[in-house]
Specification:
Strand content: under 5%
Order of helices and strands: HHHHHHHHHHHHHHH
CATH architecture of the largest domain: Up-down Bundle
Shape: globular
Number of helices: 15
Radius of gyration: 21 Å
Largest sheet: none
């Protein structure tokens, strides 16, 4: 009952409801383009490697997250979100001209800008949310945001695939451009009073370093970000093993889609429960419990049993988002407003970059080591991470 009531409070709050609408709209377009871009390149070139570069192009700018995040602290956040959305809508429409391999440079260029804009957008949005949403509801909001994102990941790829089949990559790009325009309307409708930020002190490098110092010296944020990075590294390795798990179950590779759908359902559920859980346990314990659930689920994936595989997928969906929600909420609560953009971007870089490294490591290791041994080792590593996070920080 409490969970339902707080969720209703978040949705009924004007700013919170608009933000969530923006998350749903932009998440739908992003998820659709994420799938279609690789298929688009594959159809134009026949190359798996060139298709895989689409993901790299979108992800690579996040490495510059700490630097990009300073922009969200130099200007007012709501106008920045509006301008960024309009810029991306215009750039995406240029992809309607890509109809041969000779135009791929434009696609890759737009995807790189897409990734950079996403880093700025996430930093500005997180900082503005911390201002516009009641502090007591930030955990609930971030959980509902996770629920909305996961819901879009279940629906948007199917819609994107259908749109691509009917109208090609240009149709998906146009759809994503429309979602950015709709998000612009949402941001323009927000009722938020923002003071003009004070003129920045020091160089861009010094401003970036200030955000990093705050994050790394903070007794709450540093262990959460460290545990988040370790967890996402293990999650990346585990994700690269999913097809080996499916093969061990005796199914075709397409069965991985079923497991991902079950995982998404688990993430939706934990998003609804995260607000009350954060208030009851605090961010550190909530994250530790989530990582512990993830450890058990990853290790038990080594057992080739269909019902257990479904339970493990749901467990991964429940456990993995906990550390992400806890970290984001803690950053919003523990960071001064003038630093919030760059600290958020720095935390995102430190937490999410290991996931990509884990995917690459897992792709190499699965060819050399039995996947069941790898899953057991990952489970043990995650259990140790949960234990360390649960332990009090020495003073």
């Amino acid at each position: 009952m409490t969970t339902t009531w707080t969720a209703v409070r978040v949705v009924r709050d004007r700013n919170s409801g608009l933000y969530l609408a923006g998350v749903v709209i932009s998440g739908f377009g992003t998820s659709a383009l994420w799938l279609a871009s690789g298929v688009w390149v594959k159809d134009l070139t026949g190359s798996d490697g060139l298709a895989a570069l689409c993901m790299l192009a979108m992800w690579a700018p996040t490495l510059a997250g700490p630097l990009l995040g300073t922009l969200a602290d130099r200007v007012r956040r709501r106008p920045l979100l509006i301008v960024t959305s309009l810029l991306m809508a215009a750039l995406l429409l240029t992809l309607c001209t890509v109809d041969s391999p000779h135009g791929l440079w434009l696609l890759y260029a737009v995807l790189v800008v897409y990734g950079a804009a996403g880093a700025v957008h996430d930093a500005a949005e997180s900082a503005l949310i911390a201002t516009a949403v009641d502090r007591s509801l930030l955990g609930d909001f971030n959980g509902l945001r996770m629920t909305a994102n996961e819901g879009m990941k279940l629906l948007a790829p199917l819609a994107g695939a259908g749109l691509y089949a009917a109208y090609g990559g240009a149709g998906v790009a146009a759809l994503d451009a429309v979602t950015f325009l709709l998000a612009t309307v949402v941001y323009a409708s927000l009722r938020v009073r923002e003071d003009r930020p004070a003129p920045p002190a020091g160089s861009r490098r010094e401003q970036t370093a200030e955000g990093v110092r705050h994050l790394w010296s903070h007794p709450v944020l540093r262990p959460l970000v460290s545990a988040g990075g370790a967890t996402m590294l293990c999650a990346g390795v585990s994700g690269a093993l999913v097809y080996a798990v499916v093969e061990d179950l005796g199914h075709s590779p397409a069965y991985a889609g079923v497991l991902y759908a079950v995982q998404g359902a688990g993430s939706i559920a934990v998003g609804l429960l995260s607000g009350p859980a954060l208030r009851r346990f605090g961010p550190r314990r909530f994250a530790a419990y989530g990582i512990a659930v993830l450890a058990v689920a990853v290790a038990l994936r080594a057992v080739p049993h269909d019902p257990l595989a479904w339970v493990c997928s749901a467990g991964i969906g429940v456990g993995l988002p906990a550390v992400l929600i806890a970290t984001l909420t803690a950053v919003q609560l523990e960071t001064p407003a003038p630093l919030l953009g760059r600290v958020t971007a720095t935390a995102n870089t430190l937490v999410f970059t290991p996931n990509v490294l884990g995917l690459a490591a897992g792709a190499a290791l699965v060819e050399l080591v039995d996947h069941r041994l790898l899953l057991a080792a990952l489970g043990a590593t995650l259990a140790a991470t949960a234990t360390l996070l649960r332990s009090p920080t020495p003073t």
